[in-house]
Specification:
The chain is an alpha/beta fold. Helices cover 29% and strands 19% of the residues. 46% of the residues are buried.
């Protein structure tokens, strides 16, 4: 049987309602596993309690600590798959960070699966135990090799790049709305439980993290909306942001006031990445009017393609952290990195 290592970080799956009616962290990973006897038929499991907190408390520094744990685990050549139990609110960010920063040599071609729950284990129709079992099945499946980091929720397998949380409470919240899921978990007895619909591939170019201590540079997100100005953009730069992700409207547009702010920011050496607040479609330089994507491209802005702002921010932090091994300035690093997405 394959050896699967399960890392518990917390989230709704490890919460219960207390005497005051408040949903709080209350259950350890080992306590969760005791309620899933079917796991013994999936593989030989080992566990680790990394933390027990809501995923809103997750940071890039903690993501880097998880990354180092994964590298250490696979370096011993015993574990063939890792499952990370994580809160759902920032699950897609942690998944993307890990997928963008773990290369095949570090993963040893093994999968990393992230899962969690939308309902605590003391609620009716709790989903956490089924999700955890499914994640372990995917981690133990030979066809999961070479796919990097994936999210398994509600019997679906999603890539770290394209997965999104689309609903605040539905069990069907995680999907890949612009693409299809990588596969699903089948409950038909005569079939392999893991049904992939796409060939194995890494979907995001990985970025080397050159030093043990990850010190993510400040990268902020500023949203464009009707009537927006450059106050928040200027505040981010004054706070030390090396790059700012502008969540533009449509394909990649901003108003005249924010355009002028972007122009000044780039002239002073701050990298600007344009993303879109639209959940579907690609962020690209389409319109030629002042404030449109073509005018922003002329200023020197980069574009996030299909990445939403929160994933583009993490990718920018990884790129900027990697410049310690490069003579290029951070504007060039951002442009080169996002041009190869």
């Amino acid at each position: 049987m394959k050896k699967i290592h399960i890392i518990f970080t917390g989230g709704t799956i490890a919460m219960q309602t207390n005497d005051q009616g408040l949903l709080i962290p209350a259950v350890t990973g080992d306590e969760l596993l005791k309620s899933i006897p079917a796991l013994q038929h999936v593989g030989e499991t080992s566990t680790q309690q990394f933390s027990n907190q809501p995923s809103a408390q997750m940071t890039p520094e903690l993501m880097q600590s998880l990354r180092k744990e994964i590298i250490s685990i696979f370096s011993k050549n015993e574990i063939e798959g890792v499952v990370i139990v994580h809160g759902t609110d920032t699950m897609e960010e942690t998944a993307f960070f890990l997928d963008a920063s773990l290369n095949e040599a570090q993963l040893k071609n093994n999968p990393v699966i992230i899962t969690g729950a939308m309902r605590s284990n003391d609620q009716p129709s709790a989903d956490g135990m089924a999700n955890l079992l499914a994640a372990a099945q995917v981690a133990a499946n030979s066809n999961s090799k070479g796919r990097g980091v994936m999210v398994v929720m509600n019997d679906e397998i999603h890539s770290a790049r394209y997965v999104k949380k689309m609903d605040t409470s539905s069990l069907q919240t995680f999907c890949s709305p612009q693409y299809t899921a990588l596969g699903k978990i089948s409950h038909v007895p005569s079939r392999d439980p893991i049904q992939y619909t796409q060939p194995a591939a890494r979907l995001t170019k990985t970025i080397d993290v050159p030093r043990e201590t990850f010190e993510p540079p400040r990268v902020d997100i500023v949203q464009m909306y009707a009537g927006a100005d450059s106050t928040l953009l200027n505040a981010s730069i004054e706070a030390g942001a090396q790059a700012v992700v502008i969540q533009a409207v449509g394909a990649s547009s901003v108003n005249l006031i924010l355009y002028e702010g972007i122009k000044q920011a780039i002239s002073k050496g701050t990298a600007i990445i344009i993303s879109s607040r639209s959940p579907l479609g690609e962020c690209a330089p389409v319109y030629g009017y002042i404030g449109g994507g073509q005018s922003l491209k002329s200023l020197g802005a980069a574009f996030s393609a299909d990445l939403p702002a929160h994933k583009a921010r993490l990718y920018a932090q990884l790129l900027l952290n990697s410049k310690i091994s490069s003579s290029a300035n951070h504007l060039d690093i951002i442009h080169r990195g996002f041009s190869t997405l």
